[in-house]
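Take the subject:
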Amino acid sequence: MEQHDIDARALDWVVRLGDPAFADWKAFQAWLEADPRHASAYHAASLDIEQMAAAVSPEPVVVARRRWPAWAGGAIAASLALVAGYAALDTRADPYAVETRAGTMRTVALADGSAVTLGGATRLMLDRNDPRTATLERGQAMFVVRHDTADPFEVHVGAARLVDVGTAFDVKRTRGETRVAVSDGAVDYNPGRDGIRLVKGQGLVETDTGGAVRVIAVDVAGVGSWRNSVLAYDGATLAEVADDLSRALGVDLRAEPSVAGRAFSGSIATAKLAGDPTRAAPLLGVAVRRRGNHWVMTARP
């Protein structure tokens, strides 16, 4: 058989195996064993599909982790082991980044049924070989997790580790600070002797400068409301609000020291601002002016 025919057949198998209802394992095994070139072609096609899926930004990224049936695992692994030492079944970390620009959002759908929505200016690290782990490097993300006691979902943020206990929760990493808010179920923060369990309606604030971790009450209705273009606050500083508006609107908004520490409670419908931060000034009780290439919150004259 010509190589192009083998490549075409390999691509067909990759597509078929991506279907959760796929069950024709005996045929797949027989194809792999029929020619040593088949395993190599299948592996190459799998990598091509994953790389193309990860590169497409407007659509959700689906990260597939195939669970081989017990009876077929050894035989199929033996065939695929001919290529790069079990490369197609490799369980080693295979991380990749998902990023958003300021002023945009993106949803990542994981093969286990979990979903993550990224706010603007956010960078999230995922693993092609393990959809049950994520690292939030910066920005904000809402996790809606399918709970699995035997394989809990983990989020790494800053120096902390969050483990789901049947959960929907929001994580924000900005300005040297980590914030967590739980809208359903529970999350274990740094599980262990000194761990903290956060339940529905609770949140947590940790700063990189040290000090005690603060557990706070949160409005469940406001957790993740930014996905619907609503920023909800209860006593947030204007410095935090400015940072959130920057990521939501795609602008560079800063709070001057004279107003940065002021507390704000309320909701901001970002869609109504139409990318213009000055429209939020009356609600925030400040003046907003352009200064060079950025905007500045200042005290009213």
Summary: The chain has seven helices and 19 strands. The mean pLDDT is 84. The chain has three domains: 1-90, 94-221, 229-301.
